[in-house]
Design a protein that fits this description.
With 1260 residues, the protein is mostly beta strands. The protein has 15 helices and 82 strands. It holds the Pfam family Laminin_G_2.
C-alpha cells in the first residue's frame, strides 16, 4: 500500500511539474492549491532504502562503525556511525542519487551506547562539492540534536531544500561519550528542465497572443552561475520598451531601457540555485529573488512580452571549484612551498572574497635574507611588505575597495631582481619594485593566519587574521588540491570550512530601517543613520517627538520642530511649527499660499482656481488630523459684486475641495456646517440680505466678506478652491485659506489606572519579529509590578518594575532569556510620571528610563533573530499571574502605534480610563510665579499672578515707552481716607499698608538719569526707582552696567519734606542681559495707604522735590518689561487686561523689545535640514535663531527686590499721629555718598554728622 501510495503521489507531482513548470502561466487558485498540497505531503523517508555506497564520512572508528550503518531505528553493525576522532572536522555525507526536495531531517544516537550528537550543522550540494550551509532565519546554522541515544529528534525545514547531497557536521556531542549518529531524511523526488548557457548563446520565447489579457502574469525560473555578470532575461514590449534582468557584481538588476528600476539579491554567483520570480500586474512588477521581494512601477507598453534568454544546452554544466572559508582568529592554512622557488622564481595566485578591510592573506620566510614577507589587506587595499631585523625593506600597495564581497584575484611573481603584485589581472592594477636579493622562500606558506604559539612553526602575523573565502590557489601554475588538504594528505589547517564559501551578505536584505546605510564586516553589520532622522543600532527609533504636545511637556517653547507622527513607523519626520499657548498647543501646517490673495480676472472668462500644497506629506497630514482633538482652518472670501454660493437650492458659484486623499467637493463656507450650503452669517441670521445665506450673495456694490473657521476634521485640509463669479464687470474678490492648525494629542494623554494587582488589559498579539520598540509613561506608589507581557511557545517579551528603583526588560527569541536592567538610583514609585522606552532588534536590546543613560545588551552572534509571539498582549498584568502593576500607564506605543487604553479600560473591571495628577510631574515647568493647574488631559500654567505670559509663564510682557507715555495702576482708595478721618488707628488700613515691597522689572534705555517706577500714597509718601547718571557718556555708563563696579541705582523712600536716600552698589563681575541681581533694604518704617503705581511720565508730581519732579515730568524713553510690584503686574494689566484699574496716556503697544527673541515667530527664524541634526544638537531644541541687538541702546536687565520691614510695636499709634515730626528727625545711617555729580539729590540726613536716637539703618 505504501509503495502504491508513493507511486500515485509521484505521478501527481510529475503532473504538477509538467502542467505548471511553464515560464509564464496564469494564476489559477486550484492549481496553486494542488501544488501546495503536493508540497505538504512531501515527507517520505529517503535514507532507509539507500545502499551503503550512498554514504561517505570523514573517518570511521571501525568497519562496524561505518557510515552505512547510520540509519534511524536500525541496529546493524555497531548501531550507527562513529568517526575515528571526535572533533569538529568530522562529517557524514548522504548521496540521494538525484536532486530531491528535502523537507525534514531526523537524528538519533548510536544504539546501545553513550554516543549521540547535541548540535550539528547541515550542508547541501548538487555535485558533492561547493557545499552550502543551511541556515534557519538566515542566521542560525546550528540545529539542536539529541539528549540520549534512543530518542529521535526531527527538524522540519521552514522551506524545502532541493539538493542531491546532504552533509552533516557535528558541533557538539555527549561529553561522556563520543560522536554517534543515526540519520533519516524526509522529502520527495524533484524534477525540472534545465538549460545551460555559455555566455554567447541565447533562446527566444515568444508568447502566443491571447484573446483576453489577465490581470497577472508570471515568469518564474531558477539559475546558478559562477559569473558575477551577465544578462539573464530580456523582454521586449511595445514602442521599443523593454525590460532586462541582468547580473551585475553578483546582484540582480531590473532595468527598462537605460533606466535602472530595482536591484535585489547578493552573492548570486556562488554556483547555487537561486529562485527568481517576476510578476506583472496592471501597473507594477514584483521582483522576487529567493525570499526577498520588491515592487516597481512599469510603463503600460510592457503589457506584452517577448522573452530572450541565452544559446541553450539542455543539461547543466557543473564546474568544480573548491573554496575554503577562514572563519575566525584561529583559522590558517599551511602549504609546502614549491620546489621551483629555491631558484628565486616565485609564482603564486589565489582568489579571495571578504567584507573585512584588513587581514593577512599570506606570509612566508626568506631564510637566506632572514626576512619575512607579508601579503595582506589594509584599508581594503592589497599590500606587500618585506621585513627584516625590525625595519621594512620593501613595501607595495595596489587595488582599492577589495572588501566588497566580490571575488578578486591576487598574483605574486618574482623573477631575478623584479617583484610584482597584481589585483584582478588586466581589469585591475599592479605594483612593481626591484629587489637586490634572490627571492628564495622557505619550506612553508601560511594563508589567512598563523598556528597557535607552541605549535613548532615559526609564523608571525602583526596584522589582523583574514576572514573570508579563498579558491583557485596555484603555485607555479599548479593548482592546489584542497580536497587533499581536507583529508589531511597535504599541508595542515585549523578552523577552516573546506569545499564551501561561507560568506554571508548581512546587508541583503538590509536590516537598516528608514534609509539607514548598511555596511558590514565578516561577522556583523553596521547601520549609518546620519541624515535619516532616526537612531539606534538599526535606525529604528525616531530622534523626534510625535507631537507638539510631547515637545511642550519637555519644557520647550514655541518654534519649529521635527515631528514624527508615527515614531518608528514608515512616515518620515516633517518640520512643523509648534505654537505653545497658555491654553493649547497648536501644530501649524503651512501651505503655499496663506496670504490674502486678490483674484485677477481671466481674459478667457473662466473660473478662478487655486491649489494648495502643504509643507507636510499626505500620510503625515492624515495622521496629524486623526490624532488631534481639534483641527481648524480659516476660509475667508472678500467680495464686491461677486457672489459666493448663490442660494441653497441653486448650483454654487464657488466651492472648495477638502478631506483625506484627493478630497471631496464641499459647498459650505467657513463657520458653517458641512452640507448646509451656507456661510457663518446664514447660521446666525446676520447676513446682509436675509434672502441669502452668505453676505457676498447679496451682490452689493460694496465690499463685504464671508469668513470663518472650518472645524470638521473629515473635510480638512482644504486642497483646492474654485471661485466662479469673478468675471462680471465690476466684480472684485479676494480669498484667504489659512494654515491648518490642530491641537490636542489623543495619544499622548491616553491613560488607564490599574487599581488592583490582579487587574489588567489585554490586546491582540504584538508583532515585532525583527524590530520592536515599546514606550510608555507610568506613575505608581507600588514598589514592583509587571507593566507588559506577551508570550509565545518559547519566546516572550516582558517589561516590569522589579523594585522601587529598577526597571527590567526581558525577552527570549530562542537564544535563551536575556535581560536589560536600568537602576535609577532614585525611587520610581514617587507617584510622578516616569518614561520607559525599550527596543529590541537583530543587533541589540536597549532600555531607557527617564533621561538616564540607556542600558544595552548585544544580541548573540549568529543567533535567532525572529521574535515569535502568539498569545494576547497583557498590559498591567501577566498571563502567568505574576504580580501585576498598580498605578497609571499612559501613552503606550508599540512600534509607533498607540494602544487605546482608555477605550479598553471602559469595559474592563478593575481598570479606570484616564489618570489625573500631572502637576506633581510637570509643575516645575511653570516659571516666574506661574501656578500649575490640573486638567483631565494634562495641565496649564496660570500666569495670573505673574508678570509673564506664555505656555510656561516664560514670555516677558514688554512695551516701548516714549517720553509722553504714562501707565498708572490705581489701588483701591481706603474708605476711611475718603472721610478724612486721620485719627483712626493704623489697623484700619492694614490692607493698604506695605510691610515689604518686592519690585522686579527689566529695562532697556539710553536715558540717564531716568525714573523707572514711582509709587505714591495717600499720605504723600512715595517710592521711586531711578537710574542714576554715572560719568558724562551715557552709553559708557550703561555698558559699565554689565562689566564694572557701577553705582547704578538710587532708591528714595520719601516722607516729605524729607527723603531717606540709600545708595546701592551694583557689583557685577560679568553678567549677560538675562542675569538677575537682588538688593535688600531693611527698616522698621511702614509704607502706608499706597495710592498708585506709575510707569513712565508722572503727571501728579506736586509732592516731589524739584529735581525729582523735573525727572518725573520727562518720562521714560526705552523699553520696560516684566514689571512686577508685589502681586501686581501693572504693565501686563495695561497691555492684556483692559478691564484692569489702569489709566494709559500717550502711545503704548506691546513690543518684543524686552525679549531676546522676536514676538512674531515667523519674523526671524532659520531652519535646519535633517543633515544638520548631528553632533550635540538637542533634537528638542527649536530650530529658530534668536535675534540679538547690537545697537547703541545697550540693555540693562535688573531685578531689584526691596523688603522694608517695619516694627510698629507699642508706639505705632503715636507714630501715626505725629508722623511728620518723626520723619523730620529721621536720618539714614548707611553707605556714605561719594562726592560728584552722580548724586544730584540730597537731604538733610546727608549732612548730619551725629546720628540721633531716632535714626534708622538700611542694610544692603
Amino acid at each position: 500500500n505504501g509503495t502504491a501510495t508513493d507511486a500515485v503521489l509521484l505521478l501527481l507531482r510529475l503532473f504538477c511539474n509538467i502542467l505548471f513548470s511553464k515560464l509564464v502561466h496564469d494564476s489559477n487558485p486550484l492549481s496553486f492549491w494542488l501544488c501546495d498540497w503536493l508540497t505538504e505531503v512531501c515527507d517520505s523517508p529517503l535514507v532507509s532504502n539507500l545502499p551503503p555506497s550512498s554514504f561517505r564520512s570523514s573517518s570511521q572508528l571501525s568497519s562496524s562503525h561505518g557510515p552505512g550503518f547510520a540509519k534511524v531505528n536500525r541496529r546493524e553493525g555497531a548501531g550507527g556511525w562513529s568517526p575515528l576522532h571526535s572533533d569538529r572536522y568530522q562529517w557524514l555525507e548522504v548521496d540521494l542519487g538525484r536532486r530531491t526536495q528535502i523537507t525534514a531531517v531526523a537524528t538519533q544516537g548510536r544504539y546501545g551506547s553513550s554516543d549521540w550528537l547535541m548540535a550539528y550543522v547541515l550542508m547541501f550540494s548538487d555535485t558533492g562539492h561547493n557545499w552550502r550551509q543551511h541556515r534557519q532565519e538566515d542566521s542560525i546554522g546550528a540545529f539542536p540534536g539529541n539528549s540520549n541515544a534512543d530518542s529521535v529528534v526531527q527538524y522540519k525545514f521552514q522551506q524545502p531544500v532541493i539538493a542531491r547531497y546532504l552533509r552533516l557536521v557535528p558541533l557538539d556531542w555527549n561529553p561522556s561519550g563520543r560522536i554517534g549518529l543515526r540519520l533519516e531524511i524526509y522529502g520527495c523526488p524533484y524534477t525540472s528542465d534545465v538549460a545551460s548557457f555559455d555566455g554567447s548563446s541565447s533562446m527566444l520565447y515568444r508568447l502566443s497572443p491571447r484573446p483576453s489579457r489577465t490581470a497577472r502574469e508570471l515568469i518564474s525560473l531558477k539559475f546558478k552561475t559562477l559569473r558575477n555578470a551577465g544578462t539573464l532575461l530580456h523582454a521586449e514590449g511595445q514602442r521599443d520598451h523593454s525590460l532586462t534582468l541582468a547580473l551585475e557584481k553578483g546582484k540582480l538588476l531590473l532595468s527598462s531601457g537605460r533606466q535602472h528600476l530595482v536591484s535585489l539579491g547578493s552573492l548570486l554567483d556562488d554556483q547555487h540555485w537561486h529562485h527568481v520570480k517576476v510578476e506583472r500586474f496592471s501597473t507594477h512588477l514584483n521582483l522576487t529573488v529567493d525570499k526577498n521581494t520588491q515592487q516597481v512601477h512599469i510603463p503600460a507598453e510592457l503589457s506584452h512580452w517577448d522573452i530572450h534568454q541565452g544559446n541553450v544546452t539542455f543539461s547543466c554544466a557543473e564546474p568544480v571549484s573548491v573554496a575554503v572559508t577562514f572563519t575566525g582568529s584561529q583559522s590558517f592554512l599551511q602549504l609546502p612551498g614549491s620546489t621551483g622557488w629555491t631558484l628565486g622564481v616565485v609564482s603564486l595566485e589565489l582568489h579571495f572574497r571578504t567584507w573585512n578591510k584588513a587581514g593577512l592573506l599570506l606570509t612566508f620566510d626568506l631564510p637566506q635574507e632572514e626576512a619575512v614577507v607579508w601579503l595582506y589587506l589594509n584599508d581594503a587595499r592589497l599590500c606587500l611588505q618585506i621585513h627584516k631585523a625590525g625595519r621594512v625593506l620593501r613595501e607595495l600597495s595596489t587595488g582599492s575597495s577589495l572588501n566588497d564581497g566580490q571575488w578578486h584575484s591576487v598574483g605574486l611573481r618574482s623573477r631575478q631582481d623584479h617583484l610584482t603584485i597584481t589585483v584582478d589581472k588586466e581589469e585591475g592594477s599592479s605594483a612593481h619594485t626591484s629587489i637586490s636579493f634572490p627571492f628564495v622562500t622557505g619550506s612553508h606558506l601560511f594563508f589567512g593566519g598563523c598556528p597557535a604559539e607552541g605549535s613548532g612553526h615559526e609564523c608571525e602575523n602583526p596584522f589582523k587574521v583574514f576572514q573570508g573565502c579563498m579558491r583557485l590557489l596555484t603555485l607555479d601554475s599548479q593548482p592546489v588540491d584542497l580536497i587533499k588538504v581536507q583529508e589531511r594528505l597535504l599541508g595542515n589547517y585549523s578552523h577552516l570550512q573546506i569545499d564551501m564559501c561561507g560568506i554571508i551578505d548581512r546587508c541583503s536584505p538590509s536590516h537598516c530601517e528608514h534609509g539607514g546605510r548598511c555596511s558590514q564586516s565578516w561577522s556583523t553589520f553596521h547601520c549609518n543613520c546620519s541624515n535619516s532622522g532616526y537612531k539606534g543600532a538599526t535606525c529604528h527609533s525616531s530622534m523626534y517627538e510625535q507631537s507638539c504636545e510631547a515637545y511642550k511637556h519637555k519644557g520647550n517653547t514655541s518654534g519649529h520642530y521635527y515631528i514624527d507622527v508615527d515614531g518608528s513607523g514608515p512616515i518620515k519626520p516633517q518640520l512643523i511649527y509648534c505654537n505653545m499657548t497658555e491654553d493649547s498647543t497648536w501644530m501649524v501646517i503651512q501651505h503655499n499660499n496663506t496670504e490674502l490673495t486678490r483674484v485677477q480676472p481671466s481674459p478667457e472668462g473662466k473660473q478662478h482656481s487655486a491649489h494648495f500644497d502643504y509643507s507636510s506629506e499626505e500620510e503625515q497630514l492624515a495622521a496629524i488630523i486623526s490624532q488631534s482633538d481639534h483641527c481648524e482652518q480659516e476660509l475667508s472670501y472678500h467680495c464686491r459684486k461677486s457672489r459666493l454660493l448663490n442660494t441653497p437650492e441653486g448650483s454654487p458659484f464657488s466651492w472648495w475641495v477638502g478631506g483625506p486623499g484627493p478630497g471631496q467637493v464641499q459647498t459650505y463656507w467657513g463657520g458653517a456646517l458641512p452640507g448646509s450650503h451656507q456661510c457663518a452669517c446664514g447660521l446666525q441670521d446676520t447676513c446682509l440680505d436675509p434672502k441669502h445665506y452668505c453676505n457676498c450673495d447679496a451682490d452689493h456694490d460694496q465690499w463685504a466678506n464671508d469668513s470663518g473657521l472650518l472645524t470638521h476634521k473629515e473635510t480638512l485640509p482644504v486642497r483646492s478652491l474654485v471661485l466662479g463669479d469673478v468675471q462680471r464687470l465690476g466684480s472684485e474678490a479676494a480669498y484667504r485659506v489659512g494654515p491648518l492648525s490642530c491641537h490636542g494629542d489623543k495619544n499622548f494623554w491616553n491613560a488607564a489606572f490599574f487599581d488592583k494587582e490582579t487587574s489588567y488589559l489585554h490586546f491582540p498579539t504584538f508583532h515585532g519579529e525583527l524590530s520592536a520598540d515599546i514606550s510608555f509613561l507610568f506613575k505608581t506608589t507600588a514598589s514592583s509590578g509587571v507593566f507588559l507581557e506577551n508570550l509565545g511557545i518559547k519566546d516572550f517579551i516582558r517589561i516590569e518594575l522589579s523594585s522601587s528603583t529598577e526597571v527590567v526588560f526581558s525577552f527570549d527569541v530562542g537564544n535563551g532569556p536575556l535581560e536589560v536592567r536600568v537602576e535609577a538610583g532614585v525611587p520610581l514609585n514617587d507617584n510622578r510620571w516616569h518614561s520607559v522606552r525599550a527596543e529590541r532588534n537583530v543587533k541589540e536590546a536597549s532600555l531607557r528610563v527617564d533621561e538616564l543613560p540607556a542600558a544595552t545588551q548585544e544580541a548573540p552572534a549568529d543567533g535567532h533573530i525572529h521574535l515569535q509571539l502568539n498569545s494576547q498582549l497583557f498590559i498591567g498584568g501577566t498571563a502567568s499571574r505574576q504580580k501585576g502593576f498598580q498605578g497609571c500607564i499612559r501613552s503606550l506605543q508599540l512600534n509607533g502605534i498607540t494602544l487605546d487604553l482608555e477605550e479598553r479600560a471602559k469595559i474592563t473591571p478593575g481598570v479606570r480610563p484616564g489618570c489625573p495628577g500631572h502637576c506633581s510631574s510637570y509643575g516645575s515647568l511653570c516659571q516666574n510665579q506661574g501656578r500649575c493647574v490640573e486638567r483631565a488631559n494634562g495641565f496649564t500654567c496660570d500666569c495670573g499672578l505673574s508678570a509673564y505670559t506664555g505656555a510656561f509663564c516664560h514670555k516677558e510682557v514688554s512695551a516701548s515707552f516714549k517720553s509722553e507715555t504714562s501707565v498708572s495702576y490705581i489701588f483701591k482708595e481706603p474708605y476711611e481716607l475718603s472721610r478724612n478721618d486721620s485719627a483712626l488707628p493704623s489697623s484700619i488700613y492694614s490692607d493698604m499698608t506695605l510691610r515689604g515691597e518686592k519690585i522686579s522689572l527689566s529695562f532697556r534705555t539710553s536715558q540717564s538719569p531716568a525714573l523707572l517706577l514711582y509709587v505714591s500714597s495717600f499720605y504723600r509718601e512715595y517710592l521711586a526707582l531711578l537710574i542714576n547718571k554715572h560719568g558724562e557718556d551715557v552709553q559708557t555708563t550703561l555698558r559699565l552696567l554689565f562689566f564694572g563696579k557701577v553705582k547704578c541705582l538710587v532708591f528714595f523712600l520719601c516722607f516729605p519734606p524729607q527723603c531717606l536716600l540709600t545708595k546701592l552698589l551694583c557689583v557685577f563681575s560679568q553678567i549677560d542681559q538675562n542675569a538677575r541681581e537682588e538688593f535688600n533694604l531693611t527698616s522698621d518704617v511702614e509704607f502706608n495707604a499706597i495710592k498708585s503705581l506709575v510707569l513712565g511720565r508722572v503727571h501728579e508730581s506736586d509732592d516731589l522735590d524739584a529735581e525729582l519732579a523735573r525727572l518725573a515730568s520727562l518720562g521714560f524713553t526705552g523699553c520696560l518689561s516684566a514689571v512686577h510690584f508685589n502681586s501686581i503686574s501693572p504693565l501686563k494689566a495695561a497691555l492684556l487686561h483692559p478691564d484692569s484699574p489702569v489709566i494709559i496716556t500717550g502711545p503704548l503697544a506691546q513690543s518684543s523689545c524686552g525679549s531676546s527673541s522676536p514676538a512674531n515667530p515667523y519674523a526671524a527664524e532659520t531652519t535646519r535640514s535633517l543633515s544638520d541634526q548631528t553632533g550635540s544638537v538637542d533634537p528638542g531644541q527649536p530650530l529658530v535663531n534668536a535675534i540679538r541687538s547690537d545697537s547703541a541702546l545697550i540693555g540693562g536687565v535688573i531685578a531689584v527686590v526691596i523688603f522694608i520691614t517695619v516694627s510698629a510695636m507699642a508706639i505705632m499709634a503715636r507714630f501715626i499721629y505725629r508722623r511728620k515730626e518723626t520723619y523730620r528727625n529721621q536720618e539714614v545711617k548707611g553707605v556714605q555718598p561719594e562726592d560728584g555729580p552722580e548724586f544730584p539729590y540730597s537731604s538733610q540726613a546727608d549732612s548730619q554728622s551725629a546720628p540721633s536716637e531716632h535714626q534708622k539703618e538700611y542694610f544692603i
